[in-house]
Design brief:
37% strand; 3 helices; four-stranded antiparallel sheet; 6 strands; alpha+beta
Length: 95
């Protein structure tokens, strides 16, 4: 897989922003097939940062309803990327 296929987008939630400010961690939405080593290499090359460690979590899709029909959203994978001391990555500066 290419690095653009591994990392899909950042998770810009309140919890993710708090972790970024206090613990120097970034939360990313990644491909479900990607492992920790591939996520670390893709983040280092894509954002030019030094990654210390990566934690991953498989998120289950939610039940959704549209009228009388029930469905569910797709399952996805979340990665908590811990940056090295002195490194910084801010997605809101780009907006």
């Amino acid at each position: 897989m290419k690095m653009f296929d591994i990392i899909k987008k950042p998770c810009l939630t309140e919890k993710g922003m708090l972790m970024q400010e206090t613990e120097n961690k970034v939360v990313l939405k990644v491909d479900r097939r990607a492992n920790k080593i591939a996520i670390k290499e893709a983040a280092e090359k894509l954002f030019n940062i030094k990654v210390v460690k990566v934690h991953t979590a498989n998120m289950h899709g939610k039940q959704k309803r549209l009228g009388k029909y029930m469905g569910r959203t797709s399952d996805w994978k979340k990665a908590y990327v811990t940056l090295a001391e002195g490194q910084k990555l801010d997605f809101l500066e780009e907006l």
